[in-house]
Design a protein that fits this description.
2 domains; about 45% helix; about 270 residues; mainly alpha; globular; Cytochrome p450; 10 helices
């Protein structure tokens, strides 16, 4: 949390120096084996190497704006250190978040067998339609499975909080509160998700609450498992699909139930 709130100060502390050192060494070895050239594998490292070959990247800023309200034009040089940072972040964000979200949802299904049966019945029905082949189209039709997962990450979001920096000065008219440009904001995602003002009986696992479109103006920007706006998680669709496919594969073959030593409310 300190590193997110005070990134410049934490640069000098190197809190996770061993993890960063080992991760960077691994990535550097891969880059060296490929001679810093795309090798035709068409993976994420190849994409970064191709981008580096094109030189500076130029685009519109999502943080800085001109006096006329138009975004500033910014350029970025893809250095080796920046490439390594992107690879490490993509690896961490693409695996740990999906595994924890899936685990928490299965945890709640284990303690709510009636909801689990509803999900399993839907999974079996949809898979029968697709000759028992677990494909993208099949997973896309598993509405209640999707609802169960959304409810799981409402109760246990992968990131319990978000930190954002104010891009430009803003005043909340109803609060007489002004946030200046550059101020870091701490957004307590899990606290918002568990607030009875926005979710009825928030402590209960109720996938049915997501059967209707989430258009209530009170909750539009309260449900934030993937963030919101231009800084929202770019891997949301991939994360959803791999978690849903994984749960569908498990629940089509097995039922989950708590082990004797399982904690009902993980912390």
């Amino acid at each position: 949390m300190l590193k997110e709130m005070f990134p410049e100060a934490c640069k000098h502390f190197r809190i996770f120096s061993k993890i960063e050192k080992d991760a960077y060494a691994l990535v550097k070895t891969i880059l060296q084996k490929r001679n810093y050239q795309p090798c035709g594998r068409h993976d994420f490292i190849d994409l970064l190497l191709e981008s580096k070959q094109k030189g500076k990247m130029v685009g519109q800023s999502i943080e800085s704006v001109k006096s006329n309200g138009m975004p500033e034009e910014v350029s970025l040089e893809l250095t080796e250190e920046l490439m390594m940072a992107q690879i490490v972040v993509f690896f961490a964000a693409g695996f740990e978040t999906s595994s924890s979200s899936t685990s928490y949802t299965l945890h709640e299904l284990a303690y709510n067998p009636e909801e689990q049966r509803k999900v399993q019945e839907e999974v079996d029905r949809v898979l029968a339609k697709y000759d028992n082949k677990l494909c993208y189209d099949a997973v896309s039709e598993m509405t209640y499975l999707h609802c169960a997962f959304k409810e799981g990450i409402r109760m246990f979001p992968s990131l319990g909080h978000l930190v954002r920096k104010c891009a430009r000065k803003y005043t909340f008219p109803d609060l007489d509160l002004t946030i200046d440009e550059g101020v870091s904001l701490f957004i307590p995602v899990q606290a918002l998700h568990m607030d009875p003002l926005y979710f009825e009986e928030p402590e209960k696992f109720k996938p049915g609450r997501f059967l209707t479109d989430f258009i209530n103006p009170l909750t539009k920007h309260i449900y934030l498992p993937f963030g919101e706006g231009p800084r929202a998680c770019i891997g949301e669709r991939l994360g959803l699909m791999q978690s849903l496919a994984g749960m569908a594969a498990v629940l089509s073959r097995y039922s989950v139930e708590p082990a004797p030593e399982t904690l009902r409310h993980p912390r």
